Each structure stands twice: as C-alpha cells, then as structure tokens.
C-alpha cells in the first residue's frame, strides 16, 4: 500500500512524500514524483527518516524523572499516572500563581498545522486555563516584520518563477543545504548567479560570483547597490510613481550610501559593489532569494526591509521572474485563528518570547513560570544562552513536561516525558514556506508502544482536568476542516497537495517610507543597523548543517558520522594569529560560555569571521554547543534571535 504524506520538518520545501506500507510496517519512503517542487526527491537527512521512526532509541512510554534534573534518569509510568500527576500539579499551580504561570513552549520540530508549530496543538486547552501565550521568535520573525513594513505582506515571489530570472542573487542563503528543491528552478533559468555570504558555502561554489561581506552589513550593501542603480538613472520611474510611497525621501537616503562608504562598512572592494550595482541596473528580471540566515542579526529586520525595497526601485516586482523570495507563508489564507480559539481565554494574558527562555525562567517579571510544557522543541540545544537555559530548567520548583520522540538534551530536565507520534503515524496539514502548495499527511501506520499524537495528548489531559468545553475534543479531521475553510480538503487529501493562489506583492503600495515602522518606534525610512555584539574576537556564524535539521537527526549514528566532529572554520590569517593549525583541538568562548571544537583552517570564511553549524547535541559534545556563546538578545524587529551576531575568541585547548 502507498500512503501520501508530507515532511513535517522546518524546511522551506515541505516535501510531499509516499510511504510504502507492508503488513502494517512502513518499509519505504520516497519523494512524490507528481509534486512539482519535490519532483521525487527528499534530502540527505530525510532519506533516513524511517530509521528514526523505527529507532530503538525512540521514546515509547510516558516516564517520570527519578534522578536529579539533567541526569536523564527516568522510570516508565502509565498514561493514567502521567496525566494524574500533570493534572494535579497544574491545578495546584493555577490555584497558587494563576494560569499565566504555565508556559506552553512550542518548537519547530513539526511545522504541521494540526500537530506542530503552525497550529499550536493544545492552545485551546491552555487558553481555557488562562496560560501565557508563546511567541515563536527563534527563526524568521525579524525578516517577516521587515518585509511587512515594506510590502504589506511577507509573501514574495512564487519560487517556481525563479526559472524565468536573468540575474539571481542568493543573499545570505545556502539552498543546497537548507532547502535544495529551489536549485532546480535556479538551474532552469540559466541566470547569472551571485552568492552574498560571509562564508563560501556549497551554494557559493556553484555561483558565477561570490561576495563575502562582513556579517550583519547587508542593509548597507543593498543601499550601496541602489546608490549605483540610481546614479546610472536605471530606477524604474513609472513603477515608482504608480506603486510606491516615499520615493523622494528614500532617494535621499540612498544617496548617503556611496560605494566608498559601503565598502568601508561591508569590508568589500568598492569596485565589486559598483560592478554588481551595474549588473542589477541592466538586468531584468532580477530575483533575490534571501532566507532566515541573514536576519539573525541586530539589524536583521531592517536588512530584509531594505531588500524588499530593491525590486521596488528597479521595477522587478512587476516582472515575472523578478522580485524577492523570503518565505511564501504570507500567501496561505488558512483559518489558524479557528484552530487556536483565543476567544476561549478567560482574560487577556501575557506573551512570552521563545528566545528569552533563560531570562523568563530565572528572572521573570510578573507571575513566575512554574509549569513549562515543551512541545516539539529542544531549547537546551537550539535556544540562545545555553547555560542560562540549563540553569532555568534546573530550578527545583519548575514543573517541566516534555513531549518528544527522543531523549534530547531538554528531555533530561523533564519531570514527566510524554512519547509523541511521528509523521507517518498521525494526520497533519503542511504549507510550504518555499513554495505555494498545501501538503496533506495521511496517517500510514500505527505508532509504536504508547506514543500519542500531540492533539490526542491534550484531549486526554483536558478530560483529566474535567474540562467540558466541546472544542477541546474536536478530532484531527474536524480541526483540518476548520483550518482549510475555503480550500478543497477532499481534493487535497486525494492528490496529496494543492497549489494555492499567491496574493499580490506588494499588497497595496510599496512603502519606502513606512508609517507602521515609525509607529513601532523605528526609522520611518529603510536604513542600516550595525551588529550589536561588539569588541574584539571573531564573528561566529552557526548556520544550517547539511546533515541535521536543527537538532533533529543529531543522534542519528550515520548522519553524525557524516557530519564529523564539532568544528570551527578559521581563516588562515586568524588561525595564525592565534597559533592554531588545521585539526587542532580548540575552545571557543566569550563571556556567556564556551564549547569545544576542532579547528578547520580554510579561506572558506573571510578574515574576521568564523564558521560552524547548528544542531549538535550538548551531551555528545562535552556538555555544551555553540549556543553556549550566543546572547539572548532581540533583533531590531519582532524580537527575533541573533544567532549569527556573536563574537567569540578561539584558543588552543
Ligand atoms: N540541512 C538543513 N536544512 C535546514 C536547516 C538545518 O538545520 N539543516 N534548518 C532549517 C531552518 S529551521 C531554517 S530557518 C532554514 C535556515 O536556512 P538559511 O536561511 O539558509 O539559514 P542559515 O543556514 O542560518 O544561513 C544561511 C546563510 O547565511 C549566511 N549568513 C549568516 N549571516 C549573514 C549575514 O550577515 N549576511 C549574509 N549575506 N549572509 C549571512 C550563512 O553563512 C549561511 O551560509 O533552513 C532550514 N533547512
Ligand atoms: N546557533 C544556532 N542556533 C539555532 C539556529 C542557528 O541558526 N544557529 N537556528 C534556529 C532556528 S532557525 C530554529 S527554527 C530553531 C529550532 O529550534 P527548536 O524549535 O527547538 O527545534 P529542534 O532543535 O529541531 O527541536 C525539535 C524537537 O521536536 C521534536 N519533534 C519533532 N516532531 C515532533 C512532533 O511531531 N511531536 C513532538 N512532540 N515532538 C516532535 C524533535 O525530536 C526535536 O527534539 O533553532 C535555532 N537555533
Ligand atoms: S527536510 Fe526539506 S528537503 Fe528534506 S524532505 Fe523535508 S522538506 Fe524535503
Ligand atoms: Mo528556523
């Protein structure tokens, strides 16, 4: 039997997949050949997904902690005992501290609308209890907010239109590792390819040209390129007059960013900036692919805001194959409010920021956080300021419940662990953020042991708490129907995917001057905000690993073997200045913390920059990973994370 499903992982490609089931067991998994973006291929990680599903390490039963927090020592308990204990603890906490002392902390382990981050499963129950809301700031929010200021949407181009582009700028993005299905459209275009990245990635190596600016200086670079375009008179006066607001003011701002000044800010040769500006001036359509990496900086939101303006100056927004693609999420008009049911709240509640977990646990203002539900997240591995996160999770008076598939670094701090179903075992609906398709995930097999889906876990807990609100007991299929109002669910289910219609970009007039940005306390004009982490040392970028998906697969033996040891790439000049040679054991540190790595000396990174990857497990890496060095600091817009705005020192161990 073949069953159509969807990859749930936090990846733009949201692949449609086909599970082969024999005698109730999933024996094969491949990409759906019919899906125009998946085209039959998954990726190096998800090709091993069934290994994960059948792994002997998988959590199969509810467990209660028996050793100290962090020890990872647990005993098996029944679901009845687990639910009783959770219900008793929650009731006590609500009585003493109020509902807001509960934090449902959702991660990106699944981006499903029914079981994952997009739908916040359990939110209806938590609303009824008056729990704090969760703001997912860990990934893309700064860029989304910045683009919204400019475009009135973060939607952007249909990535399939990259096949029509003549010049493609891959700006702070490494699609060959972090979402490779776009590459087919890029190749089909035959366009001139430019990579803008402080690191020479797999993607940069396949481009015609690679520029390596200093991290966090992209907004200045974009303004400098526009300076060249405008001085050549190549701006599209007709598009500007008809579709934009604030051109005279923006034009003055652009004039401040001369190639000479921008060369000093970005560390790029002036003639390379001028040459790329000239190329943009004469090439229509020009498409920009920018993704989340380049906005993990103090000025990340502003950087995307400026990038959204660029095709507004050249008129590319009006040409198929021109414009910018960041995330297509803004185009999906799904009724997620109907899923969340915030109308069930007894009173307004506070919102807690995902990336300020350490702070919230250690020094919360207002009601303390007394109960933490970690749902498809691994904050010890993925959050900034690992040491403080661990200190917070170690609090004896904190009641922590973790729902997961594996015994992660975070599971080690749980009071109660609940085993969750994996994608072939539950129903879900996905929406790509790198394409315009809804993707259906039909359950294919039974879950092992006593694993339950997240929705079913919260239905059972609601019952245990004696809650009578009928909305808490809707089935997964009922939830999918509520979400997909206006789309043809039955067709989606039969075909496995359904292309949606993109909304207009820009939505209304493009705002060079943004009243909304001004009202939020920002510069009304696009500008440049420099990096925040100052001082000496190297700027450490910890980008996506080719072999892991965030911390997922971080315990898969074969992928760990292929990824090799935890490494840090140093430019030969920076290595020599520290007496470090290729292969040396080093310690990477700053005031926040440190982690061990092996030095790789290579000019793949520019001087002043060091490179590593995210996704490693602390318990396999001497107890700390790169996130021990990252600050719990907000980016400019939306309170986003600043993983790549991080200065470190590197020394021999
Ligand atoms: N294999 C794999 N795929 C993944 C993931 C994974 O962990 N592994 N993660 C998934 C997730 S959660 C996300 S959000 C996406 C993220 O995918 P990307 O958006 O690609 O994010 P990053 O890998 O953080 O960064 C991309 C590139 O930006 C560069 N960069 C960093 N700072 C700057 C800067 O200031 N300016 C410029 N121009 N470039 C900069 C980095 O060197 C890196 O090569 O990928 C998803 N896909
Ligand atoms: N240094 C550095 N750190 C980073 C980044 C970076 O660029 N650099 N990138 C950041 C980004 S972009 C992101 S999105 C975050 C991700 O951070 P998190 O959201 O914490 O994601 P993961 O670390 O992948 O942890 C997800 C967990 O969910 C579990 N899981 C998967 N599916 C399910 C499910 O259906 N149910 C349940 N209950 N559990 C499930 C997995 O087993 C895994 O343990 O990491 C961030 N961390
Ligand atoms: S991780 Fe991305 S590329 Fe790999 S199967 Fe999932 S959606 Fe496709
Ligand atoms: Mo992400």
TrEMBL record:
Domain 4Fe-4S Mo/W bis-MGD-type: 1-57
Cofactor(s) this protein requires: Mo-bis(molybdopterin guanine dinucleotide)
InterPro entries associated with the record: Asp_de-COase-like_dom_sf, MoPterin_dinucl-bd_dom, Mopterin_OxRdtase, Mopterin_OxRdtase_4Fe-4S_dom, Mopterin_OxRdtase_prok_CS, Prok_Mopterin_Oxidored, YoaE_C
Entry keyword set: Iron, Iron-sulfur, Metal-binding, Molybdenum, Oxidoreductase
Metal-binding as UniProt keyword: yes
Similarity remark: Belongs to the prokaryotic molybdopterin-containing oxidoreductase family.
Protein name: Molybdopterin-dependent oxidoreductase
